[in-house]
Amino acid sequence: MWGTGFFKGLGFTLKMLTEKKVTHKYPDEPYIMPDRFRGIQHFEPDKCIVCNQCVRVCPTGCINLVGKANPDPEKKGKVIDTYDINFEICILCDLCTEVCPTEAIVMTNNFELATYSRDYLMKDLKWLSENNKNVREENH
Amino acid sequence: MGELRTEEMLLNVGPQHPSTHGVFRLVVKVDGETITECIPVIGYLHRGTEKLAEDLTYTQIIPYTDRLDYLASMLNNYALVQAVEELMDIKVPERAEYIRVIVMELNRIASHLVWWGTGLLDLGAISPFLFAFRDREYIVDMLNEISGGRLTYNYMRVGGVKWDAPAGWVDKVRKFVPYFREKIKEYHTLVTGNEIFVARVKGLGIYDAQTAIDYGLTGPNLRGSNFKYDLRKNAPYSIYDRFEFEIPTGETGDVYDRYMVRMEELEQSLNILEQAVASFPEEGEIMAKVPKVLRGPKDAEVYTRMEASKGELGVHIVSNGKDKPYRLKLRRPSFVNLQILPDILTGRSMADIPPIFGAIDIVLGEVDA
Amino acid sequence: MFGILDQQFSWLNFTILALAAVALLLVVLLFVMYAIYFERKVIGWMQLRKGPNRTGPWGLFQTVADVLKLLIKEDVVPKKVDRFLFLIAPIISFTPSFMVIAAIPFTENLYFTDINVGLLYYGAISSLSITGILLGGWASNNKYSIMGGMRSVAQMISYEVPLIMSFLGIVLMTGSLNLRDIVHAQIDSGIWFIFPQFIGFVVFLIAGNAELNRTPFDLPEAENELVAGYFVEYSGFRFAFFMLTEYVYTFALSSLMVTLFLGGWDAPFGLTFIPPIVWFALKFLLLVFYLFWARATFPRVKIQQLMEFAWKGLIPVALFNVMLTAVLKTLGIF
Description:
The complex is a heterotrimer. By secondary structure, chain B is an alpha+beta fold. Chain B starts with 8 loop residues before the first strand and ends with a helix. In chain B, about 45% of the residues lie in helices and about 10% in strands. By secondary structure, chain C is an all-alpha fold. Chain C has one domain (about 75-330). Chain C has helices at about 10-45, 60-70, 85-100, 120-125, 130-140, 145-165, 170-175, 180-190, 200-210, 225, 235-260, 275-295, 305-330. The longest helix of chain C is centred in the N-terminal third of the chain and has 36 residues, at about 10-45. Chain C is globular, with a radius of gyration of 20 Å. Chain C starts with 10 loop residues before the first helix and ends with a helix. The model of chain C has no long low-confidence stretch (mean pLDDT about 80).
């Protein structure tokens, strides 16, 4: 019958008035992401073997790294010197952690990247290695 | 007293206008409230995905497909990996296929929910949006849990999927199905029966099936005009031939029919989910044996298509034997569906822009690629 | 008020009246602030949200902060507007909304003027606001705002007719246009006019809803078609004036509806120990709640449908109601 739709709708919204609210208290209480969540990367310089795979796989080309000869003359290979991720263009696609053979670069569950200037979005080795909270457990 | 001078007014709707959902611009000529001419202007979100893809390996393209129709990234992911799998003749393990179908149908529901909420928001009903997003949140949480992303999943890989379903995840989907069936009923109570809503969308933006086909429309926009065409049934891909479901169609091809088709599709997606969860293989591989570097065959071409939430999403890859495509062409349903907009908008009033435009259901990321 | 208007003019009386007006203005402003708060809370709850809860306890100061922000904002007057009209439009729009409140009796003794043609006064003054809206829309020199202004005028003029016709039935029944007399007639007969005049009530509710430009009739400010409607170019306290007009009319129209149909300050079921002003406020809040409730539920109608509905739907019904009342009155049933 014409006209019943109004009352049905009104009844429904009235019922919702007392329903439990579904919002989160986000800034007051942290929003817990599931373990697999792809957040800002954590980098462990000691594990890195400077294989350059992450740089090659990155679809946006946001990773820049420079290696240097191992300071210990006994050992062969290179160690990492600088490691920068440009979060202006990083899309957090997870491919760098997927290819990393030594799990030197891993994801964390941190996602708060907002800053007042884009200069802060260039994250260097020091920042990335200090970003060691909420590191993802499962990486492959 | 002389005659009153009247003139047509040129109005720029967008690119920053509340009802265009992103950066879509519509140049309309209005005579009073009646639209006499209308030109859609697109390209504000053009990122050159197709060209970029020529410089990326097949795996690297997957995150870029996330950003086409960003409301249904799983479906885009699938469109690409399907093409590459066909190109390289890779057989995907059964468990991976099941996971793919489940995440795709979940994502289709999420995409339709956004359409439902925002479409009604454009009509001035503010509550449906919140209810739609409450339920979409459950889906997004589930997809977040399995893929690690809330919107851009980057979940599918050539030959399978990135992660296996975590413990208890399938049960969550199982529980979601009856929960959401109830919610669809609530949606109908709140909106579908509302006389104002019906009066606004019935008999609006009508086109018949032949016009729709001539314009190349697919998806709910075509089915709303009473034409049964759904690639999940007409050209089954993945494991869709194993599931029982209906293809809802409309009668007259107006906005109301397109609305009902999409609402009906929510139910059908639930049906597929229910069956997929019931026959979900206990264990199995989630990745096929694929070479470490994916190289396409020399001088090969492949075109695959699938039913995305907006319509037929096709991927055409030309390979010249490298690990990158020589050419990648995407048939983006939003882009094609948009063509009919000037045709059905001319002669209508300004107030009809939101329902007609909303019923086409475009996502600007996909229109502009 | 308290017979002052009947006395000889003196500066003392003038001061008392002015102070009373300021007091009323403050009450109205307080109402507006908390009506917005109440609206946001109610709609929030209906949408499974919490509504404003950050500023002050339970977000009670949210609207205070909003108003403060609007008042101290830079006063932007776009370059190509018709400056004079642009500046006075909000004032033209706001003044009548406050003037109509003078005619409304809140309780037996609390009223400002006891005009014999109170109803007519309300109808006449409230239609002046349209001028402000049209001028604002026109002077802004913006295509969206002119469309919003035109829509608004068309809508308000159309809905004024059924609005006024809907209470003709009551006028016929009581034989008076005086709002106090109307309330007294309800108290004396012991039956609120909502029952004998139910058709009138429904017409009034719908037309009043349209008159207030509230959902489902909020198309002058249809955000998704016209961005914001007639006040698209306004900001700061000029915008606040338009906003204020809207909510003061909500106050005035709901009060009028309580007076006409819900027995004013009359206590139902002989519950006279509750003061009349509380009864008035309760009935009033019920109507205001309805307006917010409708906003949380309905989509917006289309301008063509809106006009059709007014002229082909509401006006015949209102006319029928007038005729029915007249016939019943002649037969001596009322």
